[in-house]
Design brief:
Blueprint lengths: L1 H19 L7 H10 L1 H9 L9 H30 L14 E7 L3 H12 L4 E6 L5 E7 L1 H27 L1 E8 L2 E5 L7 E4 L11 E12 L5 E12 L9 E6 L4 E3 L2 E17 L5 E5 L3 E2 L6 E7 L14 E9 L2 E4 L2 E4 L8 E9 L16 H5 L3 E9 L4 E3 L5 E17 L3 H20 L3 E11 L5 E11 L6 H12 L1
Antiparallel strand pairs: 1-23, 2-3, 3-22, 4-6, 4-21, 5-7, 7-8, 8-9, 10-11, 11-12, 11-21, 13-14, 14-15, 15-18, 16-17, 18-19, 20-21, 22-23
Length: 494
């Protein structure tokens, strides 16, 4: 048991880095940025698995050792509990006066009548054993509180079940997240359908149940202080045999109120804004661009980048020197101070965008991964990507570049972040957690008690038959509070 407690402490301690440090499977962008910001510690932590804690060998080793220790602890305890439940209470000790609780008195009733009265007082809540000693004295041995050990075993079995449920979820469960603009949708057919997909160890994506979702609109409400009071997305969805047909079901999706569909759960995680730009090139060609921006704070100030890799006026090698990037900050309710745009409220009451226009080689052809919300800073540092214009724009306003390109901020729409989650161990984890709490409560509240009675027939000075009664009590686990209960038993049997 001591080993199990030590391993449980180590298990909790080993889980802390998974909560405090960015994880590759949760947010690759933040994890990569952490390593860039802390190159020495970042590379060391990455090499030792601290950015993928729950899949690291050392975490799995603690997990398996804890599992093994719990099994090794539970097997002998369960066997011993079974023996105790089948075994009658122990024989009444010879010297009850040595017990922590003792009382003696004399009654006119016979030993059999006194024993019958004591048995009736004890009732069904005590396990009772009645014996007759060699000198004819009648004894009663009673014990209660066996459920304490039952609760203890249930607690540890539930902990074991919880570990198994979590392991099952990590093996065959998965999570996928995607950003979906309003008035658009997506179909879940495999990992490729998602922006980020976190599969279980045994998941290859071929067994996923397909479904389709269309986001019709999104509404949000805020208090006067800017605190969110409601996020809700109205969606239509198809699943099962309805996929690919004209049959749709409707649902209002809210935070912490997932849609259960095809054995999976679809969550609404958050929302943000997608600025829209219209670019008129020197040749007269006009193209529209839009890109979701990433919220940065509670006022939903968002940053992002629109990367234009194929401007129509250029081709071949010259294309790589005339790509455009619109790097900006979107403010739902703008306020400009000293040329810097911020937002004073999360709702889009007065939208604006602060945009910086870069021209040159975006670096997408060299194979180095980039965030969709930012440009490659190495391209800027090397001079391959140069800032040519910047400005603060409201809807309808424009920026004109030195070559005659006109960039217009045409407006915005909102997007929602959806997450698909499949965890077959979730129900088992819930049941185990409930049983764990019940077992813990039982083991902490119920106490083991023992009480013994000895009834010996005697006679007083006049020769009248009497019965000497000895009562002894022992609390096996905790003596606190047994004195009052023992005194009550004695009063009822006198």
């Amino acid at each position: 048991m001591r080993t199990a407690l030590i391993l449980l402490f180590l298990f909790a301690l080993a889980s802390l880095p998974g909560a405090l440090l960015p994880q590759w499977n949760l947010d690759r962008g933040k994890t990569a940025q952490f390593i860039i910001d802390h190159p020495r510690w970042g590379r060391l932590l990455d090499a030792t698995g601290f950015f993928s804690v729950f899949g690291s060998p050392w975490y799995a080793a603690i997990y398996l050792l804890l599992f093994t220790s719990l099994v090794g602890c539970l097997v002998p305890r369960s066997v011993e509990l079974t023996r105790q439940l089948r075994r009658p209470p122990v024989v009444t000790p010879r010297n009850l006066v040595r017990m922590p609780h003792f009382f003696a008195f004399t009654t006119s009733a016979t030993p059999d009548d006194s024993a019958a009265k004591a048995t009736a007082v004890l009732g069904r809540r005590w396990r009772i054993r009645r014996d007759v000693e060699a000198d004819g004295a009648v004894t009663i041995s009673a014990e209660r509180g066996y459920l304490r050990e039952v609760g203890n075993v249930v607690f540890h079995l539930s902990l074991l079940g919880l570990l198994v449920a979590v392991a099952v979820g990590k093996l065959v469960g998965y999570e996928g997240s995607i950003i979906v603009d309003t008035q658009s949708g997506f179909c879940s057919v495999g990992p490729v359908s998602y922006d980020n997909f976190r599969p279980g160890i045994l998941v290859d994506g071929t067994q996923m149940s397909p479904f389709c979702v269309n986001v019709e609109n999104f509404r949000s409400a805020y208090t006067a202080q800017g605190q969110a009071s409601e996020f809700a997305a109205t969606i239509r969805y198809q699943s099962g045999s309805d996929v690919g047909t004209g049959r749709w079901s409707s649902r209002v999706l809210q935070v912490n109120d997932p849609l259960r569909i095809s054995g999976q759960r679809l969550y609404l995680l958050g929302h943000g804004f997608t600025p829209h730009f219209r670019v008129k090139y020197p040749s007269g060609a006009v193209r529209d661009y839009a890109q979701p921006f990433q919220p940065m704070d509670s006022t939903l100030v968002s940053q992002g980048a629109v990367k234009i890799t194929d401007p129509p006026d250029w081709n071949g090698t010259s294309l790589l020197t005339h790509q455009l990037a619109l790097v900006g900050v979107f403010a739902p309710t703008q306020r400009v101070s000293g040329g810097v745009m911020t937002s004073v409220f999360p709702a889009a009451r007065d939208p604006g965008v602060a945009v910086q226009v870069y021209r040159g080689d975006l670096g997408l052809e060299i194979g180095r991964p980039q965030s969709v919300f930012a440009i490659d800073s190495a391209q800027v540092a090397s001079g391959l990507l140069v800032k040519v214009k910047q400005g603060n724009l409201s809807p309808g306003q424009t920026l004109t570049l030195d070559d005659g390109t006109v960039i217009t901020f045409t407006g915005y729409n909102e997007w929602v972040s959806l997450q698909t989650s499949y965890d077959p161990g979730q129900l088992g984890a819930l049941i185990s957690a409930i049983a764990l709490l019940v077992g813990l409560t039982v083991s902490l509240t119920i106490k083991r008690r023992r009480v013994w009675f000895r009834f010996r027939a005697t006679a007083d000075a006049t020769g009248e038959a009497r019965t000497d009664v000895e009562v002894g009590g022992l609390a096996r686990t905790d003596a606190a509070g047994y004195g009052e209960e023992f005194s009550r038993l004695v009063r009822l049997t006198v």
